[in-house]
């Protein structure tokens, strides 16, 4: 046993003594620069979101408060959580209780919320993905994961056609959450179950002129 052990360790020592191999060159020639007109980008983004079973409401920036208020009333929302820095004008048509989140609010209190309203950082039309990076108006990750309904406001101007372009707009040092539809999973028989590890319902308000 000792002889075999020494043989193995000796080979490792010999290998470590060799000059290190040059670093491998990894090609990074991702397709970039893809651009789509606003109407095509909106149509593609909407199609992907609907495919994920999200609910989509395009509107002009001036109608944001009206659409947000209508959606919250439609879902019977009485108590919402919002991150610090959210544009208060978006809630002008909502007459329920508003609780501003912070890091000290326990998850049990987040679970008592009917919904959360956030902004977003970036979107990707090709994959129907929304990126939150914890900036003002977006909040911490728990806020967007615990309540059963997430209403997310997305500016079409921040939606890129492809993944490389979307990722390039993100700050790598920020905590990024990727959202592609409501939380869902399937069991071995492919029975879809929503709301397992995040919101059961995702509503996306797309501001087409912002």
From TrEMBL:
Q: Where is the LUD domain?
A: 86-206
Pfam families in the cross-refs: LUD_dom
What is the protein name for this chain? LUD domain-containing protein
Q: InterPro entries from the entry?
A: FTHF_cligase-like_sf (IPR024185), LUD_dom (IPR003741), NagB/RpiA_transferase-like (IPR037171)
* Source species: Streptomyces anulatus (Streptomyces chrysomallus)
């Amino acid at each position: 046993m000792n002889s075999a052990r020494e043989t193995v360790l000796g080979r490792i020592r010999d290998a470590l003594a060799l000059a290190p191999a040059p670093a491998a060159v990894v090609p990074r020639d991702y397709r970039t620069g893809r651009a789509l007109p606003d109407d095509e980008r909106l149509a593609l983004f909407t199609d992907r979101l609907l495919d994920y079973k999200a609910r989509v409401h395009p509107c002009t920036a001036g109608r944001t408060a009206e659409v947000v208020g209508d959606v919250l009333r439609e879902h019977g929302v009485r108590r919402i959580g919002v991150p610090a820095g959210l544009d208060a004008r978006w809630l002008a048509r909502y007459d329920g209780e508003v609780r501003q989140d912070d890091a000290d609010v326990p998850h049990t209190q987040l679970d008592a919320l009917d919904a959360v309203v956030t902004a977003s950082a970036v979107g990707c039309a090709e994959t129907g993905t929304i990126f939150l990076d914890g900036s003002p108006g977006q909040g911490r990750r728990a806020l967007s994961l615990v309540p059963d309904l997430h209403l997310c406001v997305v500016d079409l101007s921040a939606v890129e056609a492809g993944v490389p372009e979307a990722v390039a707009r993100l700050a790598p040092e920020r905590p990024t959450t990727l959202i592609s539809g409501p939380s869902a999973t399937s069991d071995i028989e492919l029975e879809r179950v929503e709301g397992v590890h995040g919101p059961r319902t995702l509503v996306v308000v797309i501001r087409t002129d912002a």
